[in-house]
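ARCHIVE CARD
Drawer: 12
Card no.: 0347
Subject: one protein chain, sequence and derived structure
Cross-reference: see card 0346
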Amino acid sequence: MRWVLSSIAALSLAVPSPALAAAGTSAPVPPCDAATGPYQRELEREVGLPVDGRQSPADCEAIRSLQQRLGIRPADGHASLRTYRFVLADRIRRDPAERRGCPARSYRVTCVDLTRQILWTQTGRKLVFAPVPVRSGRDGLETRRGWHRVYWKSRDHFSSLYRVPMPFAQFFDGGQALHGTRSDLFSSGSGGCVNLALGDAERLYGLLKKDDHLFIWGTKPGTGG
């Protein structure tokens, strides 16, 4: 009887269960077939492939790998504005020279580059809040440039003017504020505020204090400045 039980145990170890077999099987990677995107040339340059502005299978695979490395969803190989903005944020994070325009001060400064639509915070030249994509004011309602200070914080603010929630709002100039949104950051523009993804807005809300400095410069593409 002992021999039979030992044999059964050995057999159970030798033959994997269907669940384990399935877990070890990798799903086939779908072909990368995204069409040419609006930021094709910029991303071809980024991945080091010939810059011709036309999507190729090699371009698609390289852009998809880039998206996967940066955690961009969907990782489909399409040269979209979303992908381009995350690539810019990563470049600014890695290369101090890309933080041009942001004043280096002994105190904390949150910088908003309207041209590249990227925000970050630094003390001196040291990053204390890594660059993230944002959405600033649309044409005619542009985010105001120059030096500002956070003068009021409201965690669960609701706009009486636009009738929309403004979570993690940090006001810096009249009704203009840094705040979170569930809307698409990569289309249109705000009513003048600097919009962030909700998670980014919450982290920035926890970092900044009243009277913290902001510096805003540049021109959002498609606006008169």
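Annotation on reverse: The CA atoms of residues 95 and 183 lie 29 Å apart. Helices lie at 2-14, 18-23, 40-47, 57-70, 81-94, 198-207.
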